[in-house]
Amino acid sequence: MANFRASFRDPTAQNPPNVSSSGSGGVCMMRNTWRDEQHPSFINFISSYLNANSFRLNFIPIAPDFIFNCGGLSVAFVFVTNWDCNNCLSTYSRYLYRVQKLKEQFANLYIVVTLPTREQNDSFVRSYFKLGMKLGRPTFVPVQDLEMGFEKIVKIAHARGVRKRQDVASKLRAERKRSVQGMDVFHRVITSIPGIDNHDANSGICMEAEARKQDNPHQSSRSTHH
């Protein structure tokens, strides 16, 4: 069992940060073997916290401990809940090997480590530098307790999802802007031809726009519903 405090704080009692403004925070996938290693009360806390933030929880056999899908982006996490100071190098080496394998599979990977005591924190820092880890590859997130660790996980996943949605929206706006600019250029070129008036040019623009929609119906659908 991982470190366990007698009672976990109620995630619904203190207004947890509402990470979902759209009514659906996303999907959280938890590795079933990781779940089996934790105290049932901690799993209950996780379930309640996710429910309070509109996340759907699934237990499945996956390589990382958690995979969050928010806004179409997958973010993976390894959650170390019991750092063993007495066998730190062996523990760290085991996690390091696993992390190296996960880095090959996931572009967005975070390692959250629970270090409630000064001794555990110092032990982790020594192991981190002794084994030559590169800062930020992947990102390690030390926390003081289990609840804080999971809250950090949800906040990181949500923030990455929001940024992904913003990037997609920005790309769509840029595409629309280029399309309008292209139509303006097309209009100027057409009207510069002798014998072609604005009506003829506008008809040509409508035909061009319709042809683009037929060439890329998915793009048209996304723009219409944005």
Task: Please characterize this protein's 3D structure.
With 226 residues, this protein is an alpha/beta fold. The chain has 7 helices and 6 strands. It has helices at residues 32-37, 40-52, 88-103, 118-130, 146-191, 198-215, 217-225, and strands spanning 26-31, 55-60, 66-70, 73-80, 109-114, 139-143. It has a 6-stranded mixed β-sheet, sandwiched between helices. Helix 4 links the parallel strand 5 and strand 6. Helix 2 (40-52) packs parallel to helix 5 (146-191), helix 5 (146-191) runs antiparallel to helix 6 and helix 6 (198-215) crosses helix 7. The longest helix is centred in the C-terminal third of the chain and has 46 residues, at 146-191. It starts with 25 loop residues before the first strand and ends with a helix. The model is unreliable at 1-8, 12-18 and 219-226 (pLDDT under 50).
Helix tally? 7
Give the terminus-to-terminus CA distance. Answer: 47 Å
Mean pLDDT: 75
Largest sheet, in brief, is:
6 strands, mixed
**Beta-strand percent range:** 15-25%
Q: Order of SSEs, N→C? A: EHHEEEHEHEHHH
Oligomer: single chain
Low-pLDDT parts are: 1-8, 12-18, 219-226
The order of strands across the largest sheet is 2-1-3-4-5-6
Per DSSP E runs of 2 or more residues, the count of β-strands stands at: 6
Gyration radius (Cα, Å) is 25 Å
**Coarse morphology:** elongated
**Global structural class:** alpha/beta
Helical coverage, percent range? 40-55%
